[in-house]
Amino acid sequence: MKSNLTFISDISKKEFPLADKVSAKTIRNPILALIENDFPDFDKTKFLAIEELNMYREKYISNYLLVEIGELSNLEAKVINSLSEDKSLVSGVEDELGARTVGQKVADQVAGFGGSWKFIILFGVFIMLWILANIYILLNKGFDPYPFILLNLILSCLAALQAPVIMMSQNRQEEKDRERAKKDYMINLKSELEIRMLHEKLDHLIMHQQEELIEIQKVQIEMMNDILSRIK
């Protein structure tokens, strides 16, 4: 059965479940200073809800980024939003860049084939067959006799067309590399901030447990005093 006990937050004056109650004594000083800046009457004797504390934790992280990095860029804003919404930053770079056009697909395929040993071997065999056919079969009197002007023209045209296509593919690859670098930066930044928040939560749990142990010890001492008084 769930408990129906509630409490009133000293910040928002709203009602929250008692399980979400957080004592100001357990809040770290930097975050407590932010709360006191907005609510001057709030001190270590007051209480607030865990979701309100998380809001000020995010505010503290934003202030930290502003101090360390300067003006928050869209990347840092996305990281903070992902923290508050508990979203993953890992997604495909292709999804970020959108679907490839027909020209980009052709450029990638041409660059992939033109930069392979398969292309080098096949093109080398084609050139050797062209030269041997014109020299030995057509006895250097065929359609492209020595010094193979037509072959040179074909090679020049191929190089002139292949170079810009490969550059198009390289530009797209550089764009993908930049997006991957942004993703890596955002993931690393989120990991750092989540570790900071984890430290905050651990400190809160430790201090909360210490308070509970102290209360238990007080009760035990009172019980022992009662027992001693009865013995006397």
Automatic annotation (TrEMBL):
Key words, A-Z: Membrane, Transmembrane, Transmembrane helix
Membrane-spanning segments: 119-139, 145-168
Stored InterPro entries: DUF1003
Domain of life from the UniProt record: Bacteria
Protein's UniProt keywords contain Transmembrane helix: yes
PANTHER family per record: INTEGRAL MEMBRANE PROTEIN-RELATED (PTHR41386), MEMBRANE PROTEIN (PTHR41386:SF1)
This protein's name: Uncharacterized membrane protein
Organism in which the protein naturally occurs: Flavobacterium xanthum
